[in-house]
C-alpha cells in the first residue's frame, strides 16, 4: 500500500467514525422511550440496528484479539456491555500496544537484528524518538545500582559519605546519630560546621570585569560515563576558582526520584556526567571540589539540587552562590534561568526538553545541548549579577547589603538535610500524606467517602513503594478524588474514574476494587472528616520553635507547629480572640450543632435579641422612672418612641421639599414647643408666623432676582462697547506682512525704532479670547411654595 492509498483509507475511516459519533450524540439527545411508546413501528427498527452494532463489536474484538493472549468478550445484548467493559478495555489496550510497537519499528526505536551500530539520530527524528521512548516502558535504571533505593526504609537517613574532604569536624563525629526531643534518632548535616564557617570569597565580594563566555556553537561538552573520565574531570576542576553546577532529575517512574545527569562548567570547558551508572555513589569523590570553600559554586534554584546531591551521590556544597536569590534581591520581574539567559546572553533555551525523560540513553542532540546550556553561560550571568548587587548595595545602611543577603540565603540552601518520606496511615501525616492533600484541596466527604479516600490513598502509597513508581503516575490526584466521590462498586465504574489508566493500576485493579468495597463498608461506622479535623494539635506541638531559639506557647506557635507537622487545627476555637465570649454557646442558649447534620445552620455570631432593654440608658435619671419592666416584644413601644408619637390636638406643618435655613428650623422648633404647651389655641398664632416668614422669603427672592438682572445688563453693555472698539481697530488695521520679502529673523537684532516702540510691552496670547461670547447665567432656583398647617 502506497502513501496515497493509505491516506485515502485513513480519511474514509475517520469520516465514518465522525459520522457515527455525531449520529450517536443526536440519538442520545432524543427521548427514545417516548418515541417507542408513541410510535410502535420504531421499536423493530431500533432493535435491528442494536443487533447490527453488537455484531460489529463482537467481530471487531475477535479480529483484534486474534493471535494474542487476550480473550474477546462475547456481548450478547446491550445490558452485558457494563459487565464486560473490562474485557473491552483490555482489547483496546492490546490494540494500542500493537500500534506502539509498529510505530517504534517504523521510527527506528526498535531496530532489526543485525551487527550494525545504530546511528545517532539528529534533528526532528530525535524529537520523535524521544517522544516514543518517553511513552515506552524502559527498564528501571535504579535496579542496576550498586545500592538500589529502599522505598520501605523508614529509618533516619544516614549520609553516604565515606570520607570528608576539607573537614573542620571529623566524619566520625558527624556520623553519630542524635536523639530528637520526640525520641527519634537523627543524623546531622555532615558539613554544617564548614558551611557556617565559610567566608565570602573575594571572587564574590569584589567587582570585576565579566569574563566573556565561549561561543556555544563552536565548543563542545565532554560526556562523562566512566570512572576514568571522572578522575580526569576532577583534576581539571581542582584548578578552577569558580564552577557552575546543575542537575537533571526524573521522578515519574521512581518513588523518591533519581538524578539522571549532572552538568558542570568552568570558564573553559563543559562536562555532562551520567549519574545513572551502577557506580554513581563513587562520584562523592567530587567533594574535593564541591566542599572546597575557596572554589565558588554557582547554581540556580538550588533548593532541590542540594537535597538530590545528598540523597543520590553523597555530595555537599560549600561556598554556594544561588543566582535565583540574586534575582529576587535585584527585584527582577522574573526569576527563572531561561529569563536570565535571555536577559544577559540573549539565548533562548529549548523549553520542550524541560519535561523530557532524562533516563533515555543515548541522549539526543537536542537534549544534550539543552542540558549543556544550563551551565555554559551561568558563570557569565554570575559575573553580571555580582557586579549589579555590589552597585545596588548600600553598606552604610543596615539591611541594604544585597550581596550579603544573597550569601546568607545561599548558606541556608546548603544547610538543608535530606530525610526519607514518612507516611502515617492513621492521621495521613508526612510529606505525601493524605492530610496535606485534603488541606490543599478541601472536599466535603461523607463518612463512606472519607474512608474510601484514606484507604485508596494508602493503597496507592503502598503499591508505589512496591513498584518503585511515582504515586501520582500510578493514580493521579484527580482520579483519587473521583473514586472517593463516586464510590464505584464495579470494575467498569472503577476504571471509568481512572482515566488515563497506568500499567500498575491495570495490574492491581481487582485489589483496588476490594479496597474500595471494604473501605465503604467500614466507613458507615467510621469517623466523619470534620470530626477528625476537629482534633487539635498536641501539647508538645505548642512548644515547637520557629527559628530554633524562640518558642511560642500558643497562638502563632501552634499554627506554625500545625503547618510543619501537618497537624490539623480545630475548625472552631473555644473562644474568639477578637469577639471574646460572643461565640460562647452556654450564654446564648444555642446548642452546639456543628457535629450534626451539615444542613442545620444557625447564625455565626449569636448576638442577643434586640429588645427595648437594649436602648435603655441605665446611667440616666429617667431610666429608673420607667414604669416597670419592659416587655421583650415591645421594641416599637420604647419610651423614646412613645415620646415622639403625635398626641391629640398637636399642630404639625407640611411644607414643600425645600432646604431650610437654621433660623427657620429654630423658629419651627419654638412654634412646636408653643403648640405642645397651649394645644389647639396656638394654631392661629402659628399660621400668622408662617405667613410673615413666607412674605419675607418672597421679598428676599425678589431682591436677588433684581441684582442678577442688573449684572446681566451690565455684561451686555460691556460686550457692545467691545464690539464697537474692535470694528474701529479693524478699519485702521495695517497691511498684511510680506513673509517672502521680509528679512531673515534668525539671530536678527531689532532696530532702535522697534525697541522704542515695543518697550514695556509683552505679547498677550489671550487677547483674542475676549471676543468670545460669555457663558450662560446661573440657573435660578425655584423659590419655596406654600405651607399648610393642620391639627389632629
Describe what you observe in this structure:
With 792 residues, the protein is mainly alpha-helical. Among the domains are: 1-29; 31-107; 171-414, Nucleotidyltransferase, domain 5 (2-Layer Sandwich); 434-533, HRDC domain (DNA polymerase, domain 1, Orthogonal Bundle); 612-644, no CATH class. The chain is 45% helix and 6% strand. The chain contains 31 helices and 10 strands. A 6-stranded mixed β-sheet has the order 3-6-5-4-7-8, with helices on both faces. Strands 1-2 form a two-stranded antiparallel sheet. It has a two-stranded antiparallel sheet with strand order 9-10. Strand 4 (242-250) and strand 5 (258-265) form a beta hairpin. The longest helix has 49 residues, at 683-731. It is extended, with a radius of gyration of 44 Å.
Cα shape: extended
Mean pLDDT: 75
CATH class of the domain at 171-414: Alpha Beta
Question: Going by CATH, what is the homologous superfamily of the domain at 171-414?
Answer: Ribonuclease H-like superfamily/Ribonuclease H
**Any low-confidence stretches, pLDDT <50, length ≥5?**
109-136, 535-571, 585-617, 619-636, 675-684
CATH topology of the domain at 171-414: Nucleotidyltransferase, domain 5
Lay out the secondary structure:
Elements: H1 3-29, H2 32-38, H3 42-64, H4 80-83, H5 85-107, H6 123-135, H7 171-174, E1 178-179, E2 185-186, H8 192-197, H9 202-205, E3 221-224, H10 227-238, E4 242-250, E5 258-265, E6 270-274, H11 287-290, E7 296-299, H12 303-313, E8 320-322, H13 323-329, H14 337-344, H15 365-376, H16 378-392, H17 402-414, H18 434-440, H19 447-467, H20 471-474, H21 477-486, H22 491-496, H23 503-507, H24 509-523, H25 529-533, H26 556-565, H27 585-588, H28 639-644, E9 651-654, H29 662-678, H30 683-731, H31 752-757, E10 788-791
Parallel strand pairs: 3-6, 4-7, 7-8
Antiparallel strand pairs: 1-2, 4-5, 5-6, 9-10
Amino acid at each position: 500500500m502506497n502513501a496515497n492509498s493509505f491516506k485515502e483509507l485513513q480519511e474514509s475511516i475517520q469520516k465514518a467514525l465522525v459520522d457515527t459519533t455525531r449520529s450517536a450524540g443526536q440519538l442520545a439527545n432524543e427521548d427514545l422511550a417516548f418515541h417507542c411508546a408513541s410510535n410502535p413501528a420504531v421499536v423493530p427498527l431500533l432493535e435491528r440496528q442494536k443487533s447490527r452494532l453488537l455484531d460489529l463489536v463482537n467481530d471487531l474484538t475477535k479480529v483484534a484479539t486474534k493471535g494474542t493472549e487476550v480473550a474477546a468478550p462475547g456481548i450478547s445484548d446491550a445490558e452485558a456491555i457494563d459487565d464486560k467493559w473490562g474485557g473491552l478495555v483490555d482489547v483496546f489496550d492490546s490494540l494500542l500496544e500493537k500500534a506502539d510497537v509498529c510505530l517504534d519499528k517504523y521510527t527506528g526505536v526498535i531496530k532489526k537484528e543485525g551487527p550494525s551500530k545504530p546511528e545517532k539520530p539528529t534533528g526532528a527524528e530525535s524529537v520523535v524518538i524521544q517522544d516514543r521512548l518517553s511513552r515506552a516502558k524502559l527498564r528501571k535504571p535504579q535496579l542496576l545500582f550498586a545500592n538500589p533505593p529502599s522505598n520501605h526504609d523508614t529509618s533516619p537517613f544516614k549520609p553516604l559519605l565515606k570520607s570528608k574532604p576539607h573537614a573542620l569536624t571529623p566524619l566520625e563525629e558527624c556520623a553519630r546519630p542524635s536523639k530528637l526531643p520526640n525520641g527519634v534518632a537523627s543524623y546531622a548535616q555532615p558539613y554544617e560546621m564548614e558551611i557556617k564557617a565559610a567566608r565570602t570569597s573575594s571572587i564574590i565580594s569584589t567587582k570585576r570585569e565579566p569574563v566573556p563566555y565561549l561561543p556555544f556553537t563552536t565548543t563542545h561538552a565532554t560526556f562523562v560515563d566512566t570512572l576514568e573520565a571522572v578522575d580526569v574531570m576532577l583534576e581539571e576542576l581542582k584548578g578552577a576558582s569558580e564552577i557552575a553546577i546543575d542537575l537533571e532529575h526524573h521522578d515519574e517512574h521512581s518513588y523518591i526520584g533519581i538524578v539522571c545527569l549532572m552538568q558542570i562548567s568552568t570558564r573553559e570547558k563543559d562536562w555532562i556526567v551520567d549519574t545513572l551508572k551502577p557506580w554513581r555513589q563513587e562520584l562523592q569523590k567530587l567533594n574535593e571540589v564541591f566542599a572546597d570553600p575557596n572554589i565558588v559554586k554557582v547554581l540556580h534554584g538550588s533548593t532541590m539540587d542540594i537535597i538530590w546531591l545528598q540523597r543520590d551521590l553523597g555530595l555537599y556544597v560549600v561556598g554556594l552562590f544561588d543566582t535565583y536569590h540574586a534575582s529576587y534581591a535585584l527585584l527582577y520581574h522574573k526569576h527563572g534561568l531561561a529569563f536570565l539567559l535571555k536577559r544577559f546572553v540573549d539565548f533562548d533555551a529549548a523549553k520542550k526538553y524541560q519535561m523530557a525523560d532524562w533516563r533515555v540513553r543515548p541522549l539526543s542532540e537536542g537534549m544534550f545541548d539543552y542540558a549543556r546550556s544550563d551551565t555554559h553561560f551561568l558563570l557569565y550571568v554570575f559575573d553580571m549579577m555580582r557586579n549589579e548587587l555590589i552597585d545596588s548595595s548600600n553598606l552604610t545602611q543596615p539591611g541594604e547589603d544585597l550581596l550579603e543577603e544573597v550569601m546568607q540565603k545561599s548558606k541556608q540552601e546548603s544547610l538543608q538535610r535530606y530525610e526519607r518520606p514518612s507516611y502515617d496511615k492513621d492521621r495521613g501525616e508526612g510529606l505525601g500524606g493524605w492530610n496535606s492533600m485534603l488541606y490543599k484541596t478541601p472536599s466535603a466527604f461523607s463518612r463512606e467517602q472519607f474512608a474510601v479516600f484514606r484507604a485508596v490513598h494508602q493503597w496507592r502509597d503502598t503499591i508505589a513503594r512496591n513498584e518503585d513508581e511515582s504515586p501520582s503516575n500510578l493514580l493521579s490526584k484527580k482520579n483519587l478524588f473521583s473514586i472517593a466521590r463516586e464510590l464505584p462498586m464495579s470494575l467498569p465504574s472503577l476504571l471509568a474514574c481512572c482515566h488515563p489508566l497506568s500499567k500498575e493500576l491495570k495490574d492491581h485493579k481487582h485489589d483496588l476494587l476490594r479496597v474500595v468495597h471494604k473501605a465503604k463498608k467500614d466507613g458507615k461506622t467510621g469517623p466523619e472528616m470534620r470530626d477528625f479535623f476537629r482534633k487539635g494539635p498536641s501539647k508538645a506541638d505548642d512548644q515547637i520553635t520557629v527559628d530554633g531559639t524562640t518558642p511560642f506557647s500558643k497562638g502563632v506557635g501552634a499554627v506554625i507547629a500545625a503547618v510543619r507537622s501537618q497537624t490539623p487545627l480545630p475548625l472552631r476555637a473555644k473562644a474568639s480572640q477578637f469577639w471574646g465570649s460572643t461565640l460562647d454557646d452556654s450564654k446564648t442558649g444555642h446548642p452546639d450543632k456543628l457535629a450534626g447534620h451539615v444542613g442545620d445552620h444557625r447564625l455565626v455570631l449569636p448576638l442577643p435579641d434586640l429588645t427595648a432593654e437594649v436602648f435603655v440608658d441605665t446611667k440616666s435619671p429617667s431610666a429608673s422612672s420607667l414604669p416597670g419592666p419592659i416587655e421583650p416584644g415591645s421594641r416599637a413601644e420604647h419610651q423614646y418612641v412613645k415620646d415622639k408619637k403625635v398626641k391629640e390636638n398637636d399642630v404639625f406643618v407640611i411644607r414643600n421639599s425645600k432646604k431650610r435655613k437654621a433660623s427657620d428650623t429654630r423658629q419651627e422648633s419654638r412654634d412646636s414647643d408653643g403648640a405642645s404647651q397651649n394645644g389647639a389655641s396656638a394654631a392661629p398664632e402659628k399660621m400668622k408666623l408662617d405667613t410673615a416668614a413666607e412674605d419675607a422669603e418672597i421679598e428676599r427672592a425678589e431682591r436677588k432676582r433684581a441684582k442678577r438682572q442688573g449684572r446681566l445688563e451690565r455684561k451686555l453693555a460691556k460686550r457692545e462697547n467691545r464690539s464697537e472698539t474692535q470694528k474701529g481697530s479693524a478699519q485702521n488695521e495695517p497691511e498684511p506682512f510680506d513673509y517672502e520679502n521680509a528679512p531673515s529673523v534668525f539671530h536678527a537684532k531689532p532696530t532702535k525704532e522697534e525697541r522704542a516702540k515695543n518697550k514695556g510691552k509683552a505679547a498677550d496670547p489671550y487677547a483674542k479670547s475676549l471676543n468670545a461670547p460669555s457663558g450662560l447665567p446661573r440657573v435660578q432656583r425655584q423659590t419655596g411654595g406654600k405651607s399648610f398647617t393642620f391639627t389632629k
